[in-house]
Specification:
Blueprint: H1 3-6, H2 9-29, H3 31-43, H4 48-78, H5 81-108, H6 115-135, H7 138-147
Helix pairs in contact: 2-4, 2-5, 2-6, 3-4, 4-5, 5-6
């Protein structure tokens, strides 16, 4: 199998959408644990108010991510051809920009995002972006082959 076959935008959009929804729901459900883990190493034991605020941030971030997963799945199912590929490219770039900004800002403020969590997700987003790039001219290539 070649890279173009493996990096099919439909599958990657649906897959990234499912992963995004699962991680978002997990973030919402475990917001307190995530907040405690992220902050206590830097600041020690948190007060009830600090933990409540940090938990609210994590729960909000979890809820915020669910619509992006839905949009990715819908794009994989409802779009076709180069439109689907362009959406995969755009979504991948947008997700990566958000992840890089979140990672930089969070770690810069002492809210530790472990690199072990960041790298695998970033690799999946690179694959989504590559799938869009590899297929973004498929409609033109198919049209040229039928004209020849």
């Amino acid at each position: 199998m070649d890279a173009k076959t493996i990096l099919n935008p439909k599958g990657w959009l649906i897959g990234v959408g499912i992963v995004n929804i699962l991680f978002s729901v997990m973030t919402y459900m475990t917001g307190g644990d995530i907040a405690t883990t992220a902050l206590e190493a830097e600041y020690g034991a948190l007060s009830e108010r600090e933990l409540s605020m940090a938990t609210g941030y994590e729960e909000g971030w979890g809820l915020f991510g669910i619509p992006y997963g839905i949009l990715a799945i819908a794009s994989g199912l409802l779009l076709s051809g180069s439109d689907r590929a362009k959406m995969a490219l755009t979504a991948g770039l947008a997700f990566m920009a958000t992840f890089l900004a979140l990672f930089t800002v969070s770690n810069g403020n002492g809210y530790e995002v472990p690199i072990e969590q960041f790298v695998p997700l970033f690799a999946v987003l690179l694959a989504l972006t590559a799938s869009g790039y590899l297929h973004m001219n498929d409609d033109e290539a198919a049209q040229e082959s039928t004209e020849a």
